[in-house]
Amino acid sequence: MGTVDPIARRLAVPVLVSALLVGVAGCGGAAEPGVVSPSPTASASEAPSGGTAPADGADPSDGGVTAEAEVVAQELPVPWGIAPLPGERFLVTMRDDASLAVVHPSGDVHPLEESDGVREVADQTVPNGEGGLLGVAVDPEDTGPMFTVYLYRTGAEDNAVLRAELDLDGMTLRDVTTILDGIPSASNHNGGRIAFGPDGYLYVATGDAGDPANAQDPDSLGGKILRITPDGEPAPGNPDPGSPVWSLGHRNVQGLGWDASGRMFASEFGQSALDELNVIEPGGNYGWPDVEGPGDQEGFVDPVAWWPTSEASPSGIAVTDDAVYLAALRGERLWRVPLLGTAEEVEAGESPGFGEPQALLAGEFGRLRAVQAGPDGELYVLTGNTDGRGEPATEDGRVVDDRLLRVTVAAAE
């Protein structure tokens, strides 16, 4: 049984970086990035490769932005999940330590105190490759100091969703309960993001656990997006009333988010060709392993934006009033996909839906693992350079990764 390693107090390090957006660079053929309108009449084959599907009313100047990033906290050991708490604080999971910490806007990092709940989470978690303590969500109805939190962990035999009570005054965790288990696990493709939707239900992103057949198997929880109640039961209104499956045909989903109209988005890792941003429809089949990227095949839902895997490998996402932001690992940048109208406006033919993807912070902070919208319009981004695949940054011979960044996006002049 392990204990949570203490994380020393981190002072905010003001590092301002002006990041001009980077133009989308195509790679030729089917591996070029692109974006299409999700209107009923649009298809991947109708969209120009590497660009935006033409539509009346499109604003060609949309998306011209700059970004400034400030380091809020650093020396976080393999951070993975992030959830907002009152007071501009965040609850962050550490994948390999199976630990949690509260990060303050001042840069202070406070690990949860040794407690029965913290020990139980650590005992249940068996880090393995990409697996470990992954996603975290906080009940949006809670105001504190007690919060119900949900965790996604990789165990010895499966991935599971846990529920626990967080005492923010005492910085302890208690009453850990497994609410959903039996999610396939492996050294990779574990999914792991969890989030409350605007309907009050919990959505769970899973991976195919290295077995592509899981994604199309309706009886497997792998390669799916699940929708459950806070007690872990299939949520009312699911496509199959007895199943938690909300959508299927996914390879490895690690980002979930909703816009103001309730439209649901998910990011997905491709295998060797194309990564995806999808609009999620209940009961939708997103094609894996038969299709990677846009395929324009009957029965499968095409992505609304896609990238070569070398330019993205998207993990967490955040949806704001103006855009979807995707944290890219291998691509080492923050992708921005402008939102040009609501789902209703797109369906009515009044809007093209999405603008051309643009890259921010390209190469400035290495691998980016997660992004969370802040209360004042800023974005908070977790880097992912200490996960064994990155090159951790150093200062004066000391490793300073991983970091929590505060990113301000503004229209370009």
Automatic annotation (TrEMBL):
It holds the Pfam family GSDH. InterPro entries: 6-blade_b-propeller_TolB-like, Glc/Sorbosone_DH, Quinoprot_gluc/sorb_DH_b-prop. Residues 78-389 form the Glucose/Sorbosone dehydrogenase domain. Residues 34-65 are annotated as: Disordered. Gene3D superfamilies: TolB, C-terminal domain (2.120.10.30). SUPFAM superfamilies: Soluble quinoprotein glucose dehydrogenase. Residues 34-55 have a biased composition (Low complexity). This is PQQ-dependent sugar dehydrogenase. It comes from Promicromonospora kroppenstedtii.
